[in-house]
Write a sequence for this structure.
């Protein structure tokens, strides 16, 4: 009986040892995290973490937005907790375009090694090209990483939402009713008054008058003489 018990205990101990070797505890513990924020530089709005429709950033067609992406390692201090092989991937959605390269639709960054307690920040500018009122633009950024011995892979994503508001055109002013044109009254022409020629004066004009008067006086005198003789 004693031999049987020893055999059973030896079997159980072997099973426990085998289980321990099959599932060793992880010795590398990086802890990656990502945060994406957005700011409307055209309007001067603050940088916000726009993760929901209620907190979405307001923008209009043509506005310039700045995306800020932070990839961090929040693991405990220690070389074994460094995050290696860290990469950032951001595919631009329809409705925005990269200012530095409008034809580029995917941003891939090799962030390398991020030590515990540290972070890497990337920023880039986009222009709003959507002209649809109420359009919700979701821009997602993701990262991947791992421990140095590749036994603790890390990954994560974060979004930034922008809601497009197309300004309404200003109403055109109503045309003013045309005012009736005043009737032009013809102005009567005033003819220049004809100035009658005044009688001439002077020696040339007086001489004929004196001659006539003298002749008449002489005639009158002769007639008086004739009448006296007849008496």
């Amino acid at each position: 009986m004693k031999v049987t018990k020893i055999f059973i205990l030896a079997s159980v101990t072997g099973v426990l040892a085998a289980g321990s070797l099959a599932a060793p505890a992880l010795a590398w513990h990086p802890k990656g995290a990502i945060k994406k924020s957005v700011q409307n530089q055209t309007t001067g709005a603050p940088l916000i973490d726009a993760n929901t429709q209620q907190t979405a950033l307001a923008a209009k067609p043509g506005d310039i937005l700045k995306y800020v992406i932070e990839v961090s390692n929040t693991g405990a201090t220690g070389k074994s907790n460094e995050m290696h092989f860290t990469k950032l991937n951001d595919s631009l959605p329809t409705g925005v375009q990269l200012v530095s390269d409008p034809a580029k639709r995917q941003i891939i960054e090799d962030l390398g090694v991020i030590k515990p307690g540290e972070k890497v920040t990337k920023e880039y500018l986009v222009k709003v090209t959507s002209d649809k009122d109420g359009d919700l633009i979701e821009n997602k950024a993701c990262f991947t990483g791992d421990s140095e011995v590749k036994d603790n892979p890390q990954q994560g994503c974060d979004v930034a939402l922008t809601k497009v508001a197309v300004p309404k055109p200003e109403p055109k002013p109503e045309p003013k009713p045309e005012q009736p044109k005043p009737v032009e009254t013809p102005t009567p022409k005033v003819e220049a008054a004809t100035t009658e020629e005044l009688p001439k004066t002077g020696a040339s004009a007086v001489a004929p008058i004196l001659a006539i008067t003298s002749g008449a006086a002489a005639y009158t005198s002769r007639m008086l003489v004739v009448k006296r003789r007849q008496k």
The first strand starts at residue 32 and ends at 40. The chain is about 20% helix and 30% strand. Confidence is low (pLDDT under 50) at residues 1-24.
